[in-house]
Task: inverse folding
């Protein structure tokens, strides 16, 4: 009887370990992300489904917060492609036409975006982003392995009116060091 109880406990521990292994790996990865450093990653290609004249999608990665990607409205997307896979730990989005409070609201801004991160094996990880309607960078922690492409899709915007377009100043990507 004692042997059967010991075997049942061992079998239960093995089953629990097998079932909890993915959660354990995710917990370890998230802990390493928080304790480790982060380094910027620059995309090798930036493309958009739509852009307004004089405000190309490449302005999202130029390092200047007073240049921006101009999109005609909700539904437009921008795709960032990277040269080699990496663990994406953070995405920083600088919304609006500028970080200057006076210039920020001169164009429409994104309120909600879909963040689609594609891994090297083709798996797409989705995350819905809710952005504050305020100037300045907004950090989104991600923690996704082997990222080769990131796509941002504008879902909800504010301030869109005739003669205005949606502005996204900067999008920055960080990997774990």
Result:
């Amino acid at each position: 009887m004692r042997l059967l109880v010991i075997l049942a406990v061992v079998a239960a521990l093995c089953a629990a370990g097998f079932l909890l292994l993915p959660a354990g790996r995710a917990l370890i990865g998230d802990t390493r992300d928080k304790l480790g450093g982060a380094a910027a990653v620059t995309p090798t290609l930036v493309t958009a489904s739509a852009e307004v004249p004089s405000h190309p999608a490449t302005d999202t990665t130029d390092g200047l917060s007073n240049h921006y990607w101009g999109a005609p409205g909700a539904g437009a997307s921008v795709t960032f492609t990277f040269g080699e896979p990496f663990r994406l730990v953070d995405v920083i989005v600088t919304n609006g036409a500028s970080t200057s409070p006076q210039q920020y609201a001169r164009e429409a801004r994104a309120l909600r975006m879909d963040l689609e991160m594609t891994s090297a094996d083709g798996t797409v990880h989705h995350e819905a982003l809710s952005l504050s309607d305020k100037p300045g960078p907004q950090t989104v922690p991600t923690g996704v392995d082997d990222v080769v492409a990131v796509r941002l899709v504008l879902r909800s915007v504010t301030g869109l009116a005739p003669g205005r377009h949606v502005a996204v100043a900067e999008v920055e990507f960080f990997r774990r060091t």
